[in-house]
Amino acid sequence: MSIFKMINVCFEDNGQKIINNISHYIEQSTVTAFLGKPGSGKSTALKLLAGLITPTSGSITFEDKDIHSMTHKQNEAFRKRASFMFQDSALWANQDIYHNLELPLLLHFPDMSAAERKDRIKKITEIVEFHKPLIIRPASLSIGEQKKISFARALICEPEILFLDEPTESIDEKTEDLFISILKDFISQNKTVIYVSHDNYLINSFLCDKIYFEDGEIKEKILLDDINQIDDYYEGDL
Q1: ABC transporter domain: from which residue to which, for each copy (predicted)?
Q2: Which one of 81, 164, 232, 236 is separated from 41 by 20 to 30 angstroms, measured CA to CA?
Q3: Is the C-alpha dihedral spanning 80, 61, 75, 52 positive or negative?
C-alpha cells in the first residue's frame, strides 16, 4: 500500500528551483533513503514529503489525502502518526530538556496525566542513553547530546512513521550504533522510515529503497521490489 505519493512535485525558493518535477511513491512498512551530494535537493524533498514546506506545484498525499489541504484535525492526526528529526536537532532553546520532550505529549495526548508524561519521558531518555538532568537547556549540551534529545522527541509519541534528516551526523560511533539499534527495533514493528544521509554505515545497516537526487531531480531509484524480482528471476533459472 502506497501511503505517500509525490506527483510532479516542484519547489522554488526566491526564484531558485530546488526540486524539479519529482514523482515517487512510498509503501507502508518500508525504509527509504534519500541520497545525493550536498545541495542535490534530498533534504528539501524530505521536508516536502513530511509537509513541513509546501510545493510550488504538484501534489503530495498521505493515504490519498493532500497533505497541504488537510483540515486542522487531519493535520494534527498526521503529525501524531509521523514525526521528524531535524539535521540541526531544532530543540527549543528557551525550554529545558524536559519541556522539549513534554510538549509533543501535551499536544497529541491532552488526556495524558502529568505522571504518565513523566514516565514516558523517563523511558525515552533511558532508551537514547541520555543521563544528564532534564532541567538544563539545549545550549548546555554537546551536539551529540542534542541529537539524542532530538531523536527522543521524534520517538516519544510512538509514531508509525519517522522522517530523519542526517540522524547520525556529528555523533560518535557508540551513539551511532545505539541509534541504529533503536531504528532496527522500530522497523521490526512494521513501521515506516524515510531518511536523508550521507553516512554509508547507516545506509548499509538496513535493507531499503535508495532514491538518488541530483540537481533537484531524482536521477536513479534502486528499489527492493526490483531487486527481489531479479533474484526471483535468476532463482527460477537454477
Answers
A1: 4-238
A2: 81
A3: positive
Give the sheet arrangement for strand 82-85, strand by strand: 82-85, 161-165, 192-196, 31-35, 209-214, 217-222
C-alpha cell at 13: 525558493
pLDDT of 209 higher than 80: yes
Q: How confident is the model at residue 86 (pLDDT cuts 50, 70, 90)?
A: very high
Rg over CA atoms, the chain = 19
How many structural domains does the chain have?
1
**Strands of 65-224, DSSP E:** 65-66, 82-85, 161-165, 192-196, 209-214, 217-222
CATH assignment at residue 6? 3.40.50.300
Cα-based distances in Å from 155 to 41, 80, 105, 216, 223 = 25, 11, 11, 29, 26
Q: How far is CA 81 from CA 52, 140, 155, 160, in A?
A: 14, 30, 10, 5
Residue 66 lies in a domain: yes
Residue 213 lies in a domain: yes
Domain limits at 62? 2-91+160-237
Q: Tell me whether residue 128 is in a domain.
A: no
Report the phi/psi class of residue 159: left, alpha or beta, with left for phi > 0 and alpha for psi in -120 to 50.
beta
Q: What is the pLDDT of residue 232?
A: 45
Interatomic CA distance for residues 174 and 124, integer angstroms = 18
Residue 238 pLDDT level (bands cut at 50, 70, 90): very low
Yes or no: say if 212 and 199 are a contact pair by the CB < 8 Å rule.
Answer: no
